[in-house]
Design goal:
Blueprint lengths: L1 E6 L11 H6 L1 H14 L3 H6 L3 H5 L1 H19 L6 E4 L3 H8 L5 H21 L3 E6 L3 H10 L4 E8 L2 E6 L1 H13 L4 E4 L12 H13 L9 E2 L6 E2 L2 H10 L5 E2 H10 L2 E7 L4 H13 L29 H7 L12 E5 L1
Length: about 350
């Protein structure tokens, strides 16, 4: 059985995240304390606190999710995966867990990414919206035909695409997409147009840091957001990562390609369960096996007790809508698990 480890993006944070891991595992505690030193503030105090508002600040959220995910991967997961992938921010977690980036370098890049994205949002606000139950090609065409800047930003699963761009253009596209038959066109509570050309100033700021950071060959292939294809070449990884902030996250295509390459087990490592839901929907839509909710192995590999999950972002706003519609597959066909 070939297995993939997948890492979530922004929107999976929750108050108290990773606190039990910190208390129970000395190695995890040491890594989190090292993160406090690298960041120059005690991010663990915010992660372990009870304020969802403090945790929502981008400068905190992104390193917090990275930290939770990478510490779990390093301290609680023993087996070497056959492949890794991460959704948006999660790609940095995947690269670090697979050894392409050191813990410190990965954390520094994520912190800089978060700050650059926040500055970009403040200087040039944008908008995003989740489009439910409309073919990707229809969404692509309507975005192309809409006046102003609006593009598909996240291909999350079959039946869920997030669009991003100038607010007026996003609003126009939403109206056209609903007229074309979308079940819903749901504005997301974000102030920025992530994964669109409006993030170009953030991309430029991050580019020099990526260029100056040493990348190693990962222990397994990483399927990257920009191409949805696997690679172990450090130069290819860097080139794709440079494009990530202004390009779509091709998560649907990533899962499809993993399945085509023989992956039969997916383990989501980090806070929340968003990716599990998206993967289940894509597998069901692909017809990999008969859809059934019986005997499904949903979280049999949890290393520590989990808490509930809470950027109003490209995933969190839409995932709740999809929960009642998810079709899942028998565990003997595809295993999808989570470790929090």
């Amino acid at each position: 059985m070939k297995k993939a480890y997948v890492f979530p993006g922004q929107g999976s944070q929750f108050p108290g995240m990773a606190e039990e891991l910190y208390e129970a595992n000395p190695e995890a505690k040491a890594l989190m304390e090292r993160a406090n030193e690298v960041l120059g503030f005690r991010i663990t105090d915010i992660m372990f606190g009870d304020s969802a508002e403090d945790l929502k600040a981008t400068r905190v959220t992104q390193p917090a999710i990275f930290l939770h995910s990478v510490v779990l991967a390093k301290c609680c997961v023993q087996d070497k995966p056959d492949a890794v992938a991460g959704h948006s921010l999660g790609e940095f977690s995947a690269l670090t867990a697979a050894g392409a980036l050191s813990f410190e370098d990965g954390l520094r890049l994520v912190a800089l990414r978060a700050q650059a994205m926040q500055k970009c949002c403040e200087a040039q606000p944008g908008a995003m919206a989740a489009i439910i139950n409309l073919p990707d090609e229809v969404i692509d065409q309507i975005c192309q035909e809409t006046e102003g800047l609006v593009i598909p930003a996240n291909y999350n699963s079959k039946g869920q695409v997030v669009i991003s761009g100038e607010k007026e253009a996003v609003d126009k596209a939403c109206a056209a997409l609903k007229a074309a038959g979308a079940k819903r066109a749901l504005p997301l509570p974000v102030s920025g147009a992530f994964h669109s050309p409006l993030m170009e100033p953030a991309r430029e700021e991050l580019a020099k840091a990526i260029a100056d950071t040493p990348f190693q060959q990962p222990v397994c292939p990483i399927y990257q957001n920009v191409t949805a294809l696997p690679t172990t070449n450090p130069e290819v990884i860097k080139a794709n990562l440079l494009q990530q902030l202004t390009s779509p996250v091709r998560w649907t295509q990533t899962v499809q390609n993993m399945l085509a390459d023989g992956i039969t087990s997916f383990l989501e490592i980090g806070p929340g369960t968003v990716l599990q839901g998206l993967i289940k929907r894509t597998i069901a839509a692909e017809g990999t096996a008969p859809a059934s909710a019986k005997n499904f192995a949903d979280a049999t590999a949890r290393a520590v007790p989990s808490a509930g999950n809470s950027e109003g972002n490209t995933l969190s706003g839409a995932s709740a809508i999809l929960s009642a519609e998810e079709r899942v597959l028998p565990a003997e066909a595809i295993i999808i698990e989570g470790i929090q």
